[in-house]
Write a structure and sequence with these properties.
Helix content is 60%, strand content 0%. The protein has twelve helices and no strands. α3 packs antiparallel against α5, α4 packs antiparallel against α6 and α8 crosses α10. The protein binds fe (ii) ion (2 copies). One fe (ii) ion binds next to α5, α6 and α9.
């Protein structure tokens, strides 16, 4: 058991000094979350990363044990920005230095950049759960996103441990806020959020990860390669969760999924999609080329 897992729920909920608007009625700041929405907001808001991961695990455990309701009717405010530690500093994407992964410092920079993506992914999964808690969605929709949050926390922890093995830590280098900003234009519509987060941003990860695995193997960093194998496998599941529920919503609203996807991407996503695409992995996740080909810089 890791130190984070051994922390009782009370410790994580006792010491939080939340603004009143984050507390559900009757919640005195002690004990486990009162609902899935409450736990999601707690994890999203936590600036301390051990707390964020601990809250993610506790909320997921309680949800899968059947101890929590969705909390859709609770008047809790979902914060616009996640809680984050003071470091890394956030800089514009074009200020990020590119380094070769042949050097150890280059590998550390890559592991750090992907750890930052995974941290964003934890917050994005909880943001979907919290922000869309009162959509009329089946319980299995929330099951899917809670599992995503849990797996993103695992990815972040694996990468952070690997950084530690190499004498570094998350927060040592700068990072950028592009992912969070890309997601925030879709705050008000679940279909748009699913189009942009799992079906554009996470699907992009499927295109890139096989080459990261190869590069790590080429330089003999088998330990990092193994982490990316895990990430690659899990991320296909995340895109699949997105594709399943995107189709569900389109069906419910009697829209054609591929055309609806393209409309939403053109409205909410800047820039063209860059080939090459990992068509096999995308298709395994239910995202077939008819969705994205017409949006690609090569397909225009
Ligand atoms: Fe991930
Ligand atoms: Fe993911």
């Amino acid at each position: 058991m890791t130190p984070q897992e051994s922390q009782p729920a009370d410790r994580l909920f006792n010491h939080r000094e939340w603004p009143d608007e984050w507390k559900p009625e009757g919640f005195n700041g002690h004990g486990p979350p009162s609902s899935l929405k409450h736990g999601a907001i707690a994890a999203l808001s936590a600036p301390d990363l051990h707390d964020k991961i601990g809250l993610t695990r506790i909320t997921a455990r309680q949800w899968f044990n059947g101890a929590l309701g969705q909390g859709g009717v609770q008047t809790l405010v979902v914060p616009d920005r996640p809680g984050r530690p003071e470091r890394p500093l956030l800089v514009p994407p074009n200020k990020m230095r590119k380094r070769s992964i042949r050097s150890e410092s280059g590998r550390i920079a890559l592991l750090h950049a992907i750890a930052h993506i995974e941290l964003n992914a934890i917050d994005l999964a909880w943001d979907i759960v919290a922000r869309f808690a009162n959509e009329r969605m089946p319980r299995s929709f929330y099951d899917g996103w809670v599992r995503v949050a849990l797996e993103e926390a695992k990815h972040f922890s694996l990468l952070r441990t690997r950084l530690n093995d190499l004498g570094a830590d998350y927060g040592d280098l700068d990072a950028h806020d592009g992912l969070w900003e890309a997601a925030q234009t879709t705050q008000h519509e679940l279909r748009a959020r699913l189009a942009i987060v799992p079906l554009i941003l996470e699907a992009r990860g499927l295109d890139i990860t096989p080459s990261v695995i190869r590069q790590m193997e080429d330089v003999g960093d088998q330990k990092s390669a193994e982490i990316f194998h895990i990430i690659y496998r899990d991320e296909q599941g995340h895109v699949a969760v997105g594709a399943k529920w995107f189709r569900f919503l389109c069906l419910r609203e009697e829209r054609e999924p591929a055309a609806a996807f393209q409309d939403l991407v053109r409205t909410h996503f800047r820039g063209a999609l860059k080939p090459p695409f990992n068509d096999m992995a995308r298709a395994r996740a239910g995202l077939t080329p008819v969705f994205y080909r017409a949006l690609s810089s090569a397909g225009r």
